Amino acid sequence: MDEMRDRCVVITGASSGIGKAISACFAREGAHLCLGSRPEEAADLTAWAQELERTHAIRTWTFPVDLALPDGPERFHAAVRGIGRPVDVFVNNAGVLWYGSFAALSLEKQVETVQVNVLAHMKLMHLFLADMRERRSGRIWNVSSVSAFQPSCHHAVYGATKAFVQSLSEAVHEELRGTGVTVSTLNPSYTDTAMIHGEGFPRRLWWFDVSGVRTAEETARIGYRAFKRGKGLCITGWQNRLIHTLLLRLTPRKLMAAISYWVLQAKPSPRD
Ligand SMILES: NC(=O)c1ccc[n+]([C@@H]2O[C@H](COP(=O)([O-])OP(=O)(O)OC[C@H]3O[C@@H](n4cnc5c(N)ncnc54)[C@H](OP(=O)(O)O)[C@@H]3O)[C@@H](O)[C@H]2O)c1
Fold first, then answer.
1. Measuring CA to CA, which of 26, 163, 230, 268 is 20 to 30 A from 224?
2. Among protein residues, the one whose CA lies closest to atom 46 of ligand 1
3. For helices 156-175 and 121-135, what crossing angle results, to 10°?
4. Domain that holds residue 41
5. 242 inside domain
6. Does residue 1 form part of some domain?
């Protein structure tokens, strides 16, 4: 599926950051878009959808549904079904991250992270997959992270949720072989979005010096190119590909957590 014109693409978390930038990539190629956000961002989402319609002569629909609610994913899926168009691509992108040690962060924040990044992610994948399997055609594109590949100290639950997404995506892709439906992942490294400017997130991490920090547009562009080529997994940036595919395999697991602890700490800026 490399021709996107008139395809129907669903993107969660399209009101900001990587999801918003991904929506622009699909819109430029003429795909019609179903865009999601939390209800609080409904006005921004509508404004963005209208801009995409004006600029690219496409159709859009907006679905501001809180995916952290127990029935949020089901409501989102039912609303998208309500427009009466088969979904060609589902981009499972919405996510949250809280920075801080596991013991210090509130249980409420950790539970929200699991609800959005794991439960909603898994439920939405299952729901959209069922429709695609029936039609024997479709692509699920899960936004995972480089955090999926090793323990992520200082955002331990977030890292664990991405490991879940990665494992699930790769296993289900294999199970679907021959059905006309595929699952692939985008694995960005740090990207300059609201996520890394949230409450408690340090201004700089030591790791930024190694991995770099991309703009949401760069991350989306790299990912979209890989998606169009049908790549199963896309790690953004050569240094991240080298680290997360090759170097990590050579590193003892115990050492990985210790390295993660040190490099994901705040780096004092000259003014501190
Ligand atoms: N930024 C990074 O460094 C980085 C690195 C690797 C992977 N990622 C992944 O990239 C994806 C997008 O993150 P981002 O960096 O673009 O962050 P972002 O700008 O904060 O975007 C997150 C999106 O998820 C939506 N969302 C969050 N909670 C939701 C909920 N309960 N219900 C519905 N929508 C919800 C947000 O909607 P609202 O705008 O309404 O809040 C927003 O549109 C995430 O899966 C993240 O884990 C990010």
1. 163
2. 95
3. 10
4. 8-263
5. yes
6. no
Per the structure, how many domains does the chain have?
Answer: 1
Mean pLDDT of 11-34: 98
* Token pair 């962060």: residue: 105
| Ligand 1 pocket member 161 (CB < 6 A) | no
Cβ of 89 below 6 Å from ligand 1: no
Q: How far apart are CA 226 and CA 186, in angstroms?
A: 9
Helix (H) or strand (E) holding 61: strand 60-64
Residue to mutate (ligand 1; options 62, 93, 207; most atoms within 8 A of CB): 93
What is the spatial distance between Cα 222 and Cα 21, in angstroms, rounded to a whole number? 11
Residues in the chain, overall count = 272
Nearest-CA neighbor of 129 among 172, 165, 82? 172
Residue 272 forms part of a structural domain = no
Banded model confidence at residue 271, pLDDT cuts 50, 70, 90? low
Pocket flag, ligand 1, residue 94 (CB < 6 Å)? yes
What is the sign, positive or negative, of the torsion defined by CA atoms of 120, 155, 200, 17? negative
On whether residue 144 sits in a domain, the answer given is yes
Pocket perturbation via mutation, ligand 1, pick of 20, 38, 124, 152 by most ligand atoms within 8 A of CB:
38
Q: Whose CA is nearest to atom 41 of ligand 1?
A: 38
How do residues 54-113 score in pLDDT, each as one tens digit?
Answer: 999 999 999 999 999 999 999 999 999 999 999 999 999 999 999 999 999 999 999 999
Q: What is the CATH number of the domain that holds 240?
A: 3.40.50.720
Specify the pTM. 0.97
CB atoms closer than 10 angstroms to residue 185:
27
- 142 Cβ below 6 A of ligand 1: no
Does 223 sit in the ligand 1 pocket, CB within 6 Å?
Answer: no
